[in-house]
Specification:
With 138 residues, the chain is mainly β. The protein has a single domain (6-137), classed as Sandwich (Jelly Rolls), CATH 2.60.120.10. The chain is built from one helix and twelve strands, in the order ββββββββββββα. Strands 1-9-6-11-4 form a five-stranded antiparallel β-sheet, with no helix packed on it. A five-stranded antiparallel β-sheet has the order 8-7-10-5-12. A hairpin with a 5-residue loop joins strand 7 and strand 8. The radius of gyration is 15 Å and the shape is globular. The mean pLDDT is 96. The structure holds thymidine-5'-diphosphate (TYD).
């Protein structure tokens, strides 16, 4: 993973005879103030989610259960595919990265911990618009 705009974040994993525990604190494990948490689940096979980029949103994405693919395009290093499958490993994504999720396992829960409230006008929904806008950022 060599993008300047996203990276894996390994969370602490506290293990004892009762099982595992991981935690996320604003501005510690994630480099932003957490304002919203949402999760995507019960995704039918072959469905694609999150086919967009954000202008200002910072995000941490975690497969809190099950697994799914995340495809990232930062407009600099090209389109890359990763599989998220561990609750203690997330991907931090800064603004202006195109992202898609697919190949969800039946039990997959995609947890999204993000820096802003839901704002329709923060979305870039057309890939052509993203490609045009990214030229101004790089
Ligand atoms: P959408 O952005 O299409 O989901 P995905 O990123 O998985 O493709 O959101 C689906 C619907 O849910 C859309 O009508 C907007 C709404 N929504 C909210 O009301 N609040 C939220 O925090 C999110 C992420 C979506």
């Amino acid at each position: 993973m060599n993008s300047p705009k996203y990276k894996f974040i390994e969370l602490a994993k506290i293990t004892d005879g009762r099982g595992n525990l991981s935690f996320i604190e604003a501005e510690r494990q994630v480099p932003f103030k957490i304002k919203r948490v949402y999760f995507i689940y019960d995704v039918p096979q072959n469905q694609i989610r999150g086919n967009h980029a954000h202008k200002k949103l910072h995000q941490l994405i975690i497969a809190i259960s099950g697994s799914f693919n995340i495809i990232l395009d930062d407009g600099i290093t090209g389109r890359k595919k990763y599989r998220l499958s561990k609750p203690d490993i997330g991907i931090y994504i800064s603004p202006m990265v195109w992202r898609e999720f697919n190949n969800f396992s039946k039990d997959a829960v995609c947890l999204c911990i993000v820096s802003r409230f839901y704002e329709n006008n923060d979305y870039i929904r057309k890939y052509e618009d993203f490609k045009k806008m990214i030229k101004k950022y790089v």
